[in-house]
Amino acid sequence: MSNLQTVHNGLGAPNRKLNQFGDYEDVTNMSVDDWDYRWSLNQTKFHMPKVHPMLQKYIDKLLNGKKRQTVFVALCGKTLDMKWLLDQGHEVVGNECVDSACRQFFEENNIPYTSHSLDGVDGALYTATDGSPIKLYRCDCFELPKVMKEKVSCIWDRGGFVALPVKERSRYALTLRAIMKNDCRYLLDCFLLDNSKFGGPPFNCDEKDVKQAFETFCKIEKLETRDAFTKWQESWGISSFVEEVYLLHPK
Ligand SMILES: C[S@@+](CC[C@H](N)C(=O)[O-])C[C@H]1O[C@@H](n2cnc3c(N)ncnc32)[C@H](O)[C@@H]1O
Known about the structure:
GO biological process, one term: methylation
Strand content: 25-35%
Helix content: 25-40%
GO molecular function: thiopurine S-methyltransferase activity
Bound molecules: S-adenosylmethionine
Number of domains: 1
Pfam families: TPMT
CATH topology: Rossmann fold
Enzyme class: transferase
Protein name: thiopurine S-methyltransferase
CATH architecture: 3-Layer(aba) Sandwich
């Protein structure tokens, strides 16, 4: 990571943009190695010490009346959402590009695990050894269709779509479509924010952006818009931060 982000304000003075990690690196194009670097510095304030309220609120919409489902947790980090989904009786399939994040998930939740390398891609499959129905694909998400045998009936995405480089959104949408069952439901958590003041991630995502990425093959329903501005966002130098939740399913 060496690209210092410098924006000029038109008066000749550089106007540097803070990023989520508390420095001024340009994070608009983070690679897998860049995320690995942030995890190595424990710059993981995005990790929540509780289950995400929107997952709990909309779990019934995600399940669509079904009981035990395979829930794919996109760009999962070590989110506690996965443990909660397991405790609800679901099977969890996660994807995360950083090894230490996968290991921390199992270790911090006292789930014994093993891993083996994935065929044909740079990655590993982490599985529980106590029978817990969870596996984490440690690889670049764009490699998933090559390595995932199963298709999924539910997707939970908090900090995936909005954390990837904006130019990758359509490619990401196609990647997810490739692992969706035809009756899959996809719960997507997004934010409206001013990235001309704050470097990200997350990156602003309005309804037009969701449509642009998914509309050709998914129906899109906006479930909620709410003010999500806290002290953390205030420290980013922005004055508004709005969370929007969508439910998508293949047409
Ligand atoms: C903003 S965090 C969100 C993590 C998690 N969903 C949560 O709610 O705590 C984004 C995560 O995606 C991972 N990531 C970033 N780019 C990725 C990629 N191309 N493939 C797989 N994982 C990626 C990062 O390492 C990071 O853990």
